[in-house]
Request: fold
Amino acid sequence: MERLLTFLGCVAMALTPAHVHAAGLTLTAAGVADGFTLTTFVSGYNAQYGPLAQGIAPNGNVITGSLLGLLVYVFPDVDNQTLADAVHTVPYTAQTGNPNMAMTTAGGQVYGAQAFGGTYEHFASDGTFTPIPNLQAAGLTNNLGMWGDPVNGHIIAASNRGLVDIDPIAGTFRVINASLFPDGVTVSPDGSTVYVANSGTVQSYNITTGALIQTFFTGHGPDGTGVISGGLFDGDVVVNNNDGTVGLLDPTRSSGDPSQFVIIASGGTRGDFVSPDTSNGSLFLSQNEQVARLSCGPGCVIGGPPSAPEPASYTMLVIGLIAFAAQRLRSRRV
Reply:
């Protein structure tokens, strides 16, 4: 029944074009049936990779960057914007050959670094930034993807030392896997598993030991990844692909199962990193010319901490507790 209600609800939403597509990137029939919605967050980029990633500032604004413009942009967290809607722009100097900013939200703060060798930075709400203390002196620089651990506020990053766990407050780091240099990175809501895009596959690793758990051969050039928490697809991984598609990976299904990896959006340009909007549970999808926004419905967040129980869940819990207490009273009176 829950799946049926979800399907009927998403069909109704599909009648409104703004919920079905973001420029060329469009939900497939499977994406609509699964209850996803897709909108445009910011359009108007003109670069090889567009903006790589985003972070949510403490004041709720969205911080992102651009490759060719060498600008950090700060936008309100609303859809259907262009670059002219930025409330702040902050210029920066290229440190690397690919000076686009990878970014993440960790512990309610925004951090980022230029790709392939950039310094790890802390971003203020107006887009200005300062290096995270001690990391530069320790010789740690960014490689590609990074993600905020929802449990402890650390940064899980693909660095020049391999996959690392960074404590941005202390300015210290721990090497998770010294031989792993992946692309997109995401962390499971319980902080136990890191999913990465690596050599054309999606892989899962134990975040404590760095041991490989599983490799998924999904095709389509996987890049950014984000784990779903709550709802019908709890534990599934959204994958932004270089071929302009977006897939949904169910890591509990075996290889060869057609339901293990399903394309939920297609028609995009070049998918790259993804970033969680920790304000509302949606997921930013980077494309060449825009940032799209993917949402997964009530009781569900993508890439962030587990969603809070819906009001109905609280009601059922209270009713259950009252019934339990009444039963105990009756038992004592017998």
